[in-house]
Amino acid sequence: MFQNRTEAGLLLAEKLKKYKNAQGVVLAVPRGGVPVAYEVAKMLGLPLEIILTKKIGHPVNKEYAIGAASLTDYFVIPHNNVSDEYIDAEVERIRTRLKDMYQKFMGDTEPLNPEGKTVIVIDDGIATGNTLLGTVNVLRKSKPAKIIIAVPVASQNAVKKLATEVDEVIAVLVPENFYGVGAFYEDFTQVTDDEVMYYLDKFRELKMAG
């Protein structure tokens, strides 16, 4: 049980020590992953950015993911009765939303190119792994040297599912009985946009001071 995301981040950073000062980048999944990733990036001496992806839903059932899109790439699992026009329109719609989010959190900072780098993707926990799977598939297109998924807590099924897709899955806790991510935190209050900006600004200040 973690007290909060800060404690979870410190414990996760311990498990990632071998990547200290690596040629890499820490990518936080907003919003919940940001306070965790802040502690990790600080301890490892790596740049901190946010990774923005959204699932592409099926035209008949938007909750059913048929792919995912980021600001620069997208991937889709081919389905019958899903037209290219629909995919193009969805990708454009998603990108508009992601651009607004990126602008809000990162301002005019150009996203770091992950090509050839060790990329550590961090969230506050993984229940099914489906959303992260979409993120990984999109991320792979930018040719990073390594993709590592690191979280404080994950279900056994999610670890199994993701382990075949990335170079390494690192979790502080992989409980036998998984009742949802929030069950493993004493304080699992939803992270606000303001808090995301607070951590990103604080990290920039640290870098400038260092």
Mean pLDDT across all amino acids: 93
Sequence of secondary-structure elements: HEHEEEEHEHEHEH
The biggest beta sheet is recorded as: 5 strands, parallel
Contiguous helical run count: 6
Strand order of the largest sheet: 2-1-6-7-8
Keywords:
single chain; 210 residues; alpha/beta; Rossmann fold; Ybab, Chain: A; 2 domains; five-stranded parallel sheet; 6 helices; 8 strands; 39% helix; globular
Walk me through what this model shows.
- This protein has helices at residues 5-15, 33-44, 84-106, 130-139, 156-163, 193-209; strands spanning 24-28, 48-50, 54-57, 65-69, 74-76, 118-122, 146-153, 168-173.
- It has 210 residues and is of the alpha/beta class.
- The strands form 2 sheets. It has a 5-stranded parallel β-sheet, sandwiched between helices. Strands 3-4-5 form a 3-stranded antiparallel β-sheet, sandwiched between helices.
- A hairpin with a 4-residue loop joins β4 and β5.
- It is globular, with a radius of gyration of 17 Å.
Describe how the helices and strands are arranged.
Layout: H1 5-15, E1 24-28, H2 33-44, E2 48-50, E3 54-57, E4 65-69, E5 74-76, H3 84-106, E6 118-122, H4 130-139, E7 146-153, H5 156-163, E8 168-173, H6 193-209
Parallel strand pairs: 1-2, 1-6, 6-7, 7-8
Antiparallel strand pairs: 3-4, 4-5
